[in-house]
Structure formats: structure tokens, C-alpha cells
Batch of 3 targets.
Target 1
Amino acid sequence: MARPMARWGVALAGGALWWWAVVRLVCAPGAGALEAAVAAGGWGLSLLPVHCEPKEQADGTVDARQWVRAWRAGRAGRAGRAGRRAGSAGPVERA
């Protein structure tokens, strides 16, 4: 129970600090680099992907080996078609 409360406390304190910096930056004529740094830092943190999860646990993920097999199969298929195109004109129909 203490951990979620501590997280909420840190989140609320950080949010209050960010809002203080933004309001001071906008309203106070003497606002300086500290307020600008706090406001910019808080905005930058909002861009972080905080809801990420490990690739193995994510829904709809595909094993990396499957991608390698598909890539190699595609390359082999293209190489075979290119060799046929360059080497011969294909089967010749006879009347």
C-alpha cells in the first residue's frame, strides 16, 4: 500500500512543481532559467513512453527468428527469379 501512495506523492509533487514553473514563467517578469528548465524538463518527460512492456509480453509480437526466415526466403526467391530472367528467355513454345 505504501508504494502506490509514494508514487502518487511523487507524481503530485512533480506536477505541482511543473505548474509552478510554468505559471511563474508566464506571469512573473523576473522568471529565469530555473523556471524555464523545470518547465522544459517536465514537458520532455511527458514525451517518454511510460507504458512500454517487454517485447515478449506485448500482444501481437512475432519471434525474431520468424522475421529472419521470411527475409532469407524472400531473398532466395528474388535471386532465383533474377537468375532465370538473366540466363534465359524462359520456356519456348513449339508449334
Note: Helices lie at 2-27, 33-46, 64-87.
Target 2
Amino acid sequence: MGDLAPWQKRYEKMVVLALLFGLLSQYLFVGAPAGISVMVFVASFYGLFFYSVQGRLGGFEKWQGQASSSWLLFIPIFLLALTYTLYANILFRFLNFFALFALIVAQTTVMTSSSTKPWYRGVFYIELLFLALVKPFAFIGVPFILLTDRLRNKEKGSGTGRSKVGKILLGLLISAPILIVVISLLASADEIFLSWLSSIPNLLGDFSFGDGFWRFFVGAFIGCYAFCYIWGLIFKNPKEQVSVSAPDPQASALYARGRIEFDPLTAGTFLIAINLVYVLFVAIQFSYLFGAANGLLPEGAAYAEYARRGFAELVMVALINVGLLMCGLHLIRRTSAVAEWVRKLSLTVLISCTIVMLVSAYSRLSLYEEAYGFTQTRLLVHGFMLYLGVLLLIAMLRIWKERFSMGKAYICVSVIAFILMNYVNVDARIAEKNIGRFERTGNIDVGYLGMLSTDAAPQLLKLREKHPEIKGLHEVVELLQQHARNHDKWQSWNLSMQRAK
């Protein structure tokens, strides 16, 4: 394959420059109050903008009808950006952020003739809102498609190992932000895992996972938004063919393709990188589940507290993994038998590790409830984890049996699960569990029990008969019974309230 066409090179350079712009933006603003950084940010954006729009993205006809008056807007934009360097008034720093954004959108819209409405009409500003806040997100997949197209072109052109190395590096690059989020959650969930990470200071140094994730998110969002906003100024509609004097096959392909498909080598590298972290974490969870984690804890750490913390973080990781699983099932291009085997095995390992995390989270939440009591939220989380575990088992079956309809199974399981949760009688179980905890520990939160519905009344009546000395219990029972008596019309008859009476 020969050299890339000028328009194709320009598209790809535009993506790279947008990413660099996002990287610069997070460096300018994350962890640092706005100052001279605003001037640098505005200047950098206009550098990206003018590079992207010159000559219609690489050699096409120059745009006509650009309003010369739009250049005058540089004066208020410059002066407002300069205020962040000169002054520190909090109110105006806040207001100037929105004013700068509005002026830049207005100027770039007029410069590119993206609006057919006169700038002095009210409808023009309604269109500005659409161009700035809605339209960019219609092009959110374009930079990723450009990236995969680039790799596909390399593969067709050479077929050498160089292309494979590029795909592997891309997989590692894509996995990096997910790993930052996942590792930070796992480190928060498990003190042993955190201590193992802390024991490799040469690799981590003073790096903060939370700070790193936030910086990546800010940089990626700004870079992606800037690219999609400028792209939206150039191309009128994400589904229409670009109107240019020269043929534009790649732009047409961007809109013709219905979805993004990842190369199996890139996706395999991504899944393997994620699974390596999960396998290490799961090894720790097995030691925790079988009681061996006590000897692995860092000095001064209590096993009881270790065992009770982290269930929320583990559930979050499980939800992330469900998203990765869906991508792995539907967004990886099918090629050779070896690639398919790697994909299926990687997804199976991902599901297996996620199930172990759910078991660990379930156990931790149970210990947490023993220490602090049972609530509706905690009981519902128990049910949700069981539901999620069933969905994961169904997904594992789908991985190895392609014709199995996962959608039908998910719908059926979801309906059954929702009906079961209705008939579990949650409030009654909460009361029962808290009463059982009282019998074991002598601790009970009567105030919380008073917030339950009359479903809990039978259990509370039994507790009052057995332990009339519990302070506040009599008032709680009377309150529930009074609530039941207030619904005395036949239309409001309810078994739960009848039992409470």
C-alpha cells in the first residue's frame, strides 16, 4: 500500500493533536487554580482549530463566506482570558469561564459557517447550544474508528511483525486507564493488595491512583470533546456524506460503518493485561475466604476490620467487568481459530475472577452487617450480587455456545429476580436479621426498625413479648400499629397491615 492521502494524514494528525491538547489541559488545570494557564489553554485550542479547518482538512477547496467580523471576537476572548492572569475575583473567574466558552463557540461557528442564521438573531444562539453541547457527542466514535482504520491499513500494507507490535501496544494503551481505575478500587478494597503495590516503590513512586485516574479522565474528555466539536463544525451530519470537491472515501466509511470492531490481537492484549491484575487479586481473596489472610496483613492491621471493608469497591469492579465482558462478546472482530480461543479463554478468566470478587464482596458485606446491623440497602445489595452472579454464569455459557441467546436468558432471569425480591419480604427479613444479631451481641438499632413498614410488625411484636425491657421498642410497635389502624377503609385492606393490627 502506498503513502496515505493528504486528507487521511490530516485526520490522523488531528486526533493526535487533540490528544496532546487534552494532555496539556489536564497538566494546566488539575491540581492548580486557573491563572496564566487559561491563556495557554485558549492559544492551544486555536492552534488545534486552525490546523484542523485549514483548506477543508487537507487540500480541498477553501471555505467561502467566512465572516471577517468574527475575527473581532479575539479582542474580548483575549481580554477575558487575561483576567485570570491579572485578577483573583472569585465571582468573575466563575462567570468568565462561561463567557469564554460562549465566545469561542460563537466565533468558531461563524468562522466555519456552521450556522446559517445571522449572529444577531435569537435562533443563532439556540443553534450554538446544539453545536456545543449536543452535536459533538454524535461523533464520539470517530477518533476510535480512525485509529482502528490506521491499524487495518498497516495490516493490509505490510503484514509484518511491526503491525502486530503496534496492535499489542494499542491494547496496552487502552488497558492503562481501565487498570488505573480498577487497581485504585482494588487497593481501596483490600489492604493486602495495597501493601503489595506499596512494596514496589520504584514502579509506583509517589503516584496516586486517584489523582492519575482524574488526570486521565480530564485529559481524555477535553481532548475527545475538542476533536468532536471541531469535527462537527466541518461535517454537517454524522450520517451524510461529506460535501467536498474531492472524493473523501474514508469520511464516507466513517459514517457507513455501524459499529466499532476491535482487532483480536489488540483486544487479547487488553484482556490479558486486565486478567493479570485480577488473578493476583483473586489469589489474595482465596487467602481471605479461607482465613489465611491474617498472616499476610501488614503490621498493625486488624483482620476483623480488613474483612469488613471493601465490598462496595468490589461490586464496582464487578460492574466494570460486566461492561468489558459485553465489549468482548460483541465488539471483537472474529478472525482465526487461535484468536477465538484466546478471546474465549480470556473472557472466561475475566468472568471467573469477577465471580470470586462477588463471593468475597458478599462475605465482606455479611461481616459488615454482623458488626453494624442489617438495612434495606445492604440486603438489596446482597440480592443484586446474587443476581449479577447468575448473569455472569449465563455469560460464561454464551462464550462457549455462540447460538445461545443471552438476551432471552437475561430478560427471563431479570423478571424472575425482580419478582423474587418482591416476595422475599425485605422489611420482615431486616427485622428478623437484626433481632438475631441482638440475641448474639445485645446490640439493636430500634430507631431504624421504626422506619420499616408494617411488614416488620410480626417480628417486632415477638421481640417485644420476649424482651419488653428494650428501650423505645414499645413506642415503635405502637407507631406501626397506629399506622395500620389509620388505613381502615376496605379499599386499603392489606394483609401486612391486618397482621400489624
Note: Residues 1-6, 57-65, 238-258 have pLDDT under 50 and may be disordered.
Target 3
Amino acid sequence: MPANRNAPRPRPDVAVTGMGLVTPAGTGVAANWSALLAGRATASLDPDLHPLPAPLTCRVPDFDPARLLGGRKAYRLDRFVQFALVAAQEAVRDSGLDPRTWDGARTGVVLGCADGGPGTVEAQHRVLLTDGPGQVSPLLLPMQLPNMLAGQLALEFGASGPNLVVATACASGATAIGTARDLLLLDRCDVVLAGGSEAMLTPLVMAGFAQMGALSRRTADPATASRPFDAGRDGFVAGEGAGIVVLERAADARARGAHVHGLVLGYGASADAHHITAPHPHGRGIETAVRAALADAGAAAADVTHVNAHGTSTPHNDRVEGLALGRIFGAEPVVTSTKGTTGHLLGAAGAVEAVYTLLAVRHATAPPTTGLGDLDPELDIDVATAPRPLRAGVALSNSFGFGGQNAVLAMGTG
């Protein structure tokens, strides 16, 4: 009997074989996991933002680019690229791959970033105003352009395959991982470095967030300022950092004896098409993205045991997401927002939280939601306030952004 040419082809699994993190919770995956389980808040008053009405941030501690990357890269690269390089170095080491021997033409880089290098732009604008155009650095554009995030990683690792940076606001890191997965499924690459990085804690950017009313003003007690899903939440605390993963087809990873941290089972994306900053009031786009990720994974709502929620600690966004999760899942999955520990890492958040989701699956433990004291009574979801055991199943990582951008990753064990 001839083969049915219309029958769907089996789709290969996509594996995560390397992970790297630089966040306010620390540099390195192990430091981050310890901080999450301990429920350690990282928000503090930021002396660089003292005149602002909401001078709270979550900054990466003890980050010394000269020590971690070498002196030249300490002044030739913006902070958002430095974070990504350090995280990528950890991820590549973790994967067991050797960039000196891999096929660079079959190695891609897909990263997410919301803004590029505003720190460099603001610093050079001050130079322009005080010293004149002749003193502006010729490195201004190569340092601050968002695409240089992927370009610098390509230079570092000899990755000459597809190379791009995606910008879907605070969903960027998750969008990048979903896009990288598609490149593997389409056989455009054999290895992809994927993730996101952000360093936006500058006076101008933070003034803009403050003027929007998006930031927490709980300055008297910074440790409780980021409190996702709490009845008393009043805004997010902005953070910085990077999360990078190494993706391969699972069959290729296993053939070389690699350790597989987990699988990217599905990816769903949508646009609210509703408002420039506010989510759809009924969570229409959120629900669409969640259901698309489940369908892509071949999973049902009942298969989901854990959700790493977007959970920014803003009144409206947490409410909309919480109500959407309740409609889709009821109170069954254990929900966590890790932004209680790290703050909101903006374009890097989706990538960092994808790593956190994989860690939760691998350790069969949901980390607590730091800062949550009294769950918003309007929400019928099970939010962890202490480490909780997880049963085997599918885990989701939710990421949403300005412009109504929604990206959801479905993940599981390998």
C-alpha cells in the first residue's frame, strides 16, 4: 500500500541542553534556584534614581564585566550585551558543546530585547550636550542597537547561522525561545542559542515608567514592593538581567550523550489588539496564547501542573491574568510568579522564567511567590507561598507585554 502523503509527519522534540542566568537573584543557575526557593526579595532603593517618585529597582549584584568578560568588553559593550554574554557562556558550558568544533553555519542565535542599550544612549547624549558632537563615541551605535545582542553572541561563539533579535516588549525572551524552536523544527539549524537580555534601569526609562503609574511606590519597605497577586499590590519593580538556553533536537542531543534539562513542548502567541499598554479586560489574548501553546504541545488543560505566571504585581495585569488562569484551569495547577524575587526583567523576563520553569519541572518543586501575603480575593487560583511539590505533567511559562503581546511556552521533562 502506498504511503499516505497527507499524513502528518512526527515532529521532533526540542530539548534544552544548556542554561545560563544573570539576574538580581545572582549570576548562575544554582544561585538563582537557591534564591527562589528561599523566597529572597531583591528590590531595594536605587541611589541612581533618588529624585524619582518610585526609585526602586532589582539590580544584578556584584556584576564585574572586567572580571567576567575581560577589560576590553567592559567598556566596548553595553550592559545588556554583557549580561547575555555571561549567561550564554554558562549555557554553552552546561550543554557540553564545543563552539570550536560545531558547524557554525547550522548554529543560530535568537534573542529577545525590549529596548537595546538606553544606558549608552543616555550617557552619550550627556556627552553631546556638554562636550559637543566631536566627543560622542564612535561605538555609540554598535553598543546600543538591539540587534547587536545577537551579533555579539555570534562573534563570541562562531555562530554564523540565522541571527536575529525579536522585540515583543516584556514577552520578548519567550518569543525568542519559541522562534528558535521553530528554526529547529524547520531544520534551519541544529543548535540555537536563545533567550533574552535587558538593562533598562536608567533615569529616563524609569521616569517614563513612573509617569505611567506602572511602578510600585512602596519605598518604606522595598522587600515587599514586588508582591504578585497580592491584594495590596501597587505596581512592579523593574529589574535587569539575562537568561540564555541552548536548544537542540532531542534526538541529536541524546545521540551525543547530552544531559537534557527538559523539552520545549509547545509555543503559543497572540495579540490582544486592544490597547497600547493595558491587556484585554477579559484576557482574550492571554487565553488564546495559552490554548495555542497547549494545542501545539498536544496537551489538555488537565495535563498542566504548574504555571510560571507573568504576574508583574500591577493591579490590572495580575487581575486579568489570574482570572484567565482560573477560567482555563480552575484551581488545579500550582501558580508561581518569580517576579516577587527578581522584579520584572522586562524583555529578559520570558527567557529567565523559562529557565525557572524548567528548574521547577526538573526538581518537581514550585518555588514560592515572594512578597505574596494576602491573595487577591477575586482570584480563584492556587498561588504558592512556600516551595510546593509538583506532580509530573506540563508546565507553562507566561509572558505578556505592552502592545498586547502574548507568548506562552509549554515545557516538560526529557
Note: The mean pLDDT is 95.
